[in-house]
Write a structure and sequence with these properties.
By secondary structure, this protein is of the alpha/beta class. It has a single domain, classed as Ribokinase (UDP-N-acetylmuramoyl-L-alanine:D-glutamate ligase). The chain is built from eleven helices and 13 strands. The chain has a nine-stranded mixed beta sheet, with helices on both faces. Helix 3 packs parallel to helix 5, helix 8 packs antiparallel against helix 9 and helix 9 crosses helix 11.
């Protein structure tokens, strides 16, 4: 079943202790779409400028991402520049140029309005609600957000959360949104505002899922080849929701499998800059790494 994703498509310039990339393909919707495309069809709504390379369009089409919702308008594409130190959990923004993204108003094509799974990537919460007014009756709505919106548009974000079943954010954003340093209490607070499922990304420490009063914890895979963590959270969301859209099974057990699949896709993404690792990724590798996660967390019952 196809997923509708609304978010950013960008050109990123990234430096880490292990190398750099200039004007590489990036953006929340791009990472999400690429990861999700290994499991299901993806419908992308975003905006780019006249300078957006055709090669990037060709890549997304090669992943069978439906680009009828990708607007190309006069001006320059959204650009972000950042760097990481040896603590790869934290990006330091050097430059942000919104360009055409500053005037982005999502227009959902008629062919997308019946999407059963909708992902509202990291955009203005008012725009997220505008998207929901344009879709018919999705079976699952998931959203992302960030500290900028939590701080600057809190009331608008709370209105959006009332219409969201799944919220996918990191641990710092969870604490900031709930205004509580304790993750357990913070998750309960946010869940009471609307989302019945809260997925908390914790970088190299894995992910937590709070759902209907119960917790699930998934580790991060120990890795010796992390080059660039940019987009890992969006790839996590793509793997998580892509798997759910493929199965259309929203049971507690399948949500747990989806959390692990999100971690699997994030683990591949960090192995190279931009989307380079996902360009060469094959599904048998995904299945094998899912098995590695199972082995990592297996232990026997007490005698």
């Amino acid at each position: 079943m196809a997923i509708l994703v609304v978010g950013s498509v960008a050109l990123d310039s990234v430096a880490t202790p292990f190398g750099k990339a200039q004007d590489a393909l990036g953006g929340s919707a791009t990472y999400f779409s690429t990861a999700a495309s290994f499991f299901t069809d993806v419908r992308l709504v975003a905006v780019v400028g006249e300078d957006f390379p055709q090669a990037h369009v060709d890549f997304l089409q090669s992943r069978r991402v439906d680009l009828r919702g990708l607007q190309r308008v006069k001006g320059r594409t959204f650009r972000w520049a950042g760097e990481y130190g040896f603590d790869l959990n934290q990006a330091h923004t050097l430059d942000t140029q919104l360009n055409v993204f500053a005037q982005f108003r999502p227009q959902i094509p008629d062919a997308y309005r019946d999407s059963e799974v909708v992902f509202l990537a990291n955009i203005d919460p008012d725009l997220q609600r505008e998207v929901l007014l344009q879709v018919r009756a999705p079976r699952l709505v998931a959203a992302d957000t960030m500290n900028f919106w939590i701080e600057g548009k809190r009331e608008a974000l709370l209105k959006t959360l009332k219409q969201v079943e799944v919220l996918i954010i990191n641990d710092a954003e969870t604490r900031q949104l709930a205004q509580d340093a304790n993750l357990v209490r913070a998750a309960r607070t946010i869940s009471a505002w609307g989302p019945h499922t809260l997925v908390i990304k914790r970088g190299e420490y894995g992910a937590l899922c709070y759902r209907h009063g119960a917790w699930f914890s998934a580790p991060a895979l120990p890795m010796d080849g992390v080059l660039d963590p940019t987009g890992a959270g969006d790839c996590f969301a793509g793997g998580f929701l892509g798997y759910l859209a493929n199965t259309l099974n929203f049971s507690d057990e399948n949500i747990r499998r989806a959390v692990v699949m999100g971690s699997v896709m994030a683990s591949f993404n960090v192995e190279a800059f931009s989307l380079d690792r996902l360009r060469t990724l094959a599904y048998p590798e995904i299945a094998e790494r899912y098995g590695a996660f199972r082995r990592l967390t297996h232990f026997d019952a007490l005698d």
